[in-house]
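User: Here's a protein and a ligand (pyrrole-2-carboxylate). What would the complex look like?
Assistant: Let me lay out the input and then the predicted complex.
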Amino acid sequence: MTASIRLTLDQAYHLAQRALRSNGFSAEHADAVAQNVTAGERDGCASHGLYRILGCVHSLRMGKVSADAEPELIDSAPAIMRVNAHGAFSLVAYRRALPAFVDKVKRNGIAALAINHCVHFSALWADIEPLTEQGLVALACTPSHAWVTPAGGNQPLFGTNPIAFGWPRPARPPFVFDMATSAAARGEIELHRRAGKPLPPGWGIDRDGNPSTDAASVLAGAMLTFGGHKGSALAAMVELLAGPLIGDMTSKESLAFDNQTGSSPYGGELIIAMDPQRFLGEQQATYLAHAETLFSDMQQQGARLPGERRFRQRPLSEQHGIELPQALYEEIEALCQ
Ligand code: NDP
Ligand code: PYC
């Protein structure tokens, strides 16, 4: 069994924050990243939890992320905003753009936010929840590095390209799904490699194009999309929407820019939000109730709603803390020296 250490959420945050500050990240960037990875750990999303601190510091040491860039907000059209992260992680750029973005969505009924020139390592549900908290419906996507082969191909081209969607629910946690368009996130495969565990079949192929359940072989070969050609089409859509449409990189361009340093992906994220109030006016309550019927019909068949697992885990972690593999804890501690 792997040795582990239990930390309160406060201890987890401070461990992450110290590692980032010791390596030169500004207070604001370190805070945003530490909050994000602590939330990942809290919600039982280890692939985007404290493990990500290793990649954040590595990206900085490789000169592939800015430690302190100031985001620049650009109001480019009545319903379109851009924020240039100027080479820093996406999180501070998003945090700074959020109030004006929400204002645009509420004024227009629908608006889009492009985060440009950002380094991206984080789970997208964390970008969706501040919008559902405002009663908005939201969609987000981002390319990553070319790691995933298109259905019918055998060479990495697409990123793991997550799509997240959120729907606000009165007096309940929102309906949120957040999924890589690859069979699993690359972070999951990295965690399998670190734990010496085989992958489930169908996640990837080795360098020679043969199906493989060995994490290291798949990391060196190519990952597969979920659902064959359907996941492949969605992965291509993410490349287009959060790449060329917003004047940013595809996953292939991001990997070329990385120049084999093994840093986090660089490029854009697109977030679209809609205000049910502006779509429905006085009928809002009626139609949100229809959505509730849909959710309860799903659950009555025994299906669980996406997001449910995370929201169940959250209060448990708040009460009991989180468990981190001892080896990972020591690696992050070592970054603080
Ligand atoms: P999963 O396959 O674990 O989960 C995807 C979604 O499906 C989640 O919303 C999950 O909800 C839901 N789900 C899982 N099992 C069930 C079930 N049995 N019934 C109903 N719903 C279910 O996630 P991925 O590996 O695809 O992605 C993990 C994370 O990686 C995401 O947060 C994503 O944003 C992040 N990522 C980030 C990238 C980036 O470039 N920044 C790139 C790729 C991934 P629940 O959470 O409740 O389990
Ligand atoms: O897990 O695929 C992934 C990923 C890529 C960028 C951030 N997470």
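Summary: The pocket of NDP (ligand 1) is lined by residues 45, 47-48, 120, 122-125, 142, 144, 160, 162, 164, 177-180, 184-185, 188, 265, 304, 306-310 (CB under 6 Å).
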